[in-house]
Amino acid sequence: MPTTFKWRRWLWGAGAVALCVAFAHFCVQIVPADAPLFPAKAPVAKSSSGALLMPVEGVPASALTDTFTQARALGERSHDAIDILAARGRAVLAVADGRIDKIHWSKEGGRTVYQRAPDGRTLYYYAHLDRYAPGLREGQMVRRGQRIATVGSTGNADPGAPHLHFAIHRAMPATPWHGGDPINPYPLLATP
Fold it and tell me: How many Cα atoms sit within 13 Å of 163 on the Cβ side?
């Protein structure tokens, strides 16, 4: 067997091992069989309308990155949201009490959920979802911490990097589910 062929096989093998280690580190969580599916107390952040729950189960605030102003669509627009990396199937939780305004499929966001705060002035947007929680429907009232979906990579998300695209919009009660002015969720979730 030629020497260059052996080195190529070794490099491919080393690369595969590195990818497996990275996957295990960032995407696999080993928990005891008797552990609860949802932690009793999840990390919270304060906002002017009360405490926001971390929208992805088990993700600490320290793992967040502020991607709000990053360019998207070849620099044509800003992100206006943050991406929360997590394993596919990880629970997506309602960040606050509210009503499910819209369950929607879009080319960009894939499976999405739009939630409106009880006062009608804040919209929460959850995108790239893998699945909706069983029985979730438009008009349904949800409680802070209630499972509404699971993390995925639907829409224009990279299939190899499942995450929750999470956005917050300030609105008026009559503002449509897709409207409002974007505000950065990062300081509301990353600052204790």
Answer: 18
